[in-house]
C-alpha cells in the first residue's frame, strides 16, 4: 500500500516537473523580448526543476544520495532566479528596451533600435567583435 | 538498481521523462542560436544547463548510477557561474547583482 502511494507520488511529481518545464520552454521560445523570456525562465523552469528533483529524491529513498539531491534542489531554487536576474540586468545595462503591448516592433527591431541609440554601438568595437555582439561600448552617462 | 524500489515501472518512467527533457533541450537550441541579443543566448544556455542537471538526476535513478548526482551538482555550480560571469563581462561595469 505505502509502496503504491510512493510510486504514484514519484510519477506525479516527475510528470508535473516535465509539464512546467514544457511551459518554460514554450515561453522562452515564444515570448517577445528578453525580459519576459528571463521571467518565464526564472519561474516556470525553477518550479519544473524543483518538482522533478523532488521526485528523484523521493525515488532514491533514505541515503547519502538523497541528501545530495535535496542539496541540488535547494541550490537550483536559489541560483536559477539569481542567474535570470543578472542576465536581465545585463540586458538593461546594454540598453535593450522592453517590449510593450502597443508596440508593433519585433525583438530584432528593438535590438537594432537599442544598438542605434548607443553611440559607437558595435560598429567600431575593434576586430574582436562580430556583428551579433554589441561588444565594447562607451559609457553614456 | 536502487534498493527498495519496487519493480521496473519507476525506472521506465524516469527514462521516458529524461527523453522528454532531452526533446525540450533540443527545442531550446533554437533560442540559443537565433535569439537576437547576447542575453537571449546566455539565458537559453542557462535553461539548457538546468535541463542537463535534471536529466543527469533522472538518469541517476533510471540507470542506477548514483554518482551521476554528484556530476549534476558540479554542473549546476558551473552553470550558475557561467551565467553570472557572462552577464558581468558583456557589459562594462563594476557590479552584477
Catalogue the unreliable spans of chain A: 119-141
E-strand count of chain A: 0
Greatest interface and its residue counts? A-B, 58 and 56 residues
Give the H and E element order of chain B: HHH
Strand content of chain B: under 5%
Counting DSSP H or I runs of 4 or more residues, the number of helices of chain B is 3
Shape of chain B: elongated
Cα end-to-end separation of chain B: 43 Å
User: What is the makeup of the main sheet of chain B?
Assistant: none
Mean pLDDT across all amino acids of chain A: 80
How helix-rich are the residues of chain A, as a percent range? Answer: 55-70%
Describe this structure in words.
The complex is a heterodimer of chains A (141) and B (97). Chain A is 69% helix and 0% strand. Chain A is mostly helical and 141 residues long. Chain A has one domain. The longest helix of chain A has 30 residues, at 64-93. Chain A is elongated. Chain B is mostly helical. Chain B is 76% helix and 0% strand. Chain B is built from 3 helices and no strands. In chain B, helix 1 (9-34) packs antiparallel against helix 2 (38-62). The model of chain B has no long low-confidence stretch (mean pLDDT 86). Chains A and B meet through helix 1, helix 2, helix 3 and helix 4 of A and helix 1, helix 2 and helix 3 of B.
Produce the secondary structure layout.
The complex is a heterodimer of chains A (141) and B (97).
Chain A lengths: L1 H29 L3 H27 L3 H30 L13 H11 L24
Helix pairs in contact in A: 1-2, 2-3
Chain B lengths: L8 H26 L3 H25 L5 H23 L7
Question: What would you say about this model in short?
Answer:
Chain A has 141 residues and is an all-alpha fold. Chain A has 4 helices and no strands.
Features:
heterodimer; A: 141 residues; mainly alpha; disordered C terminus; B: 97 residues; 3 helices
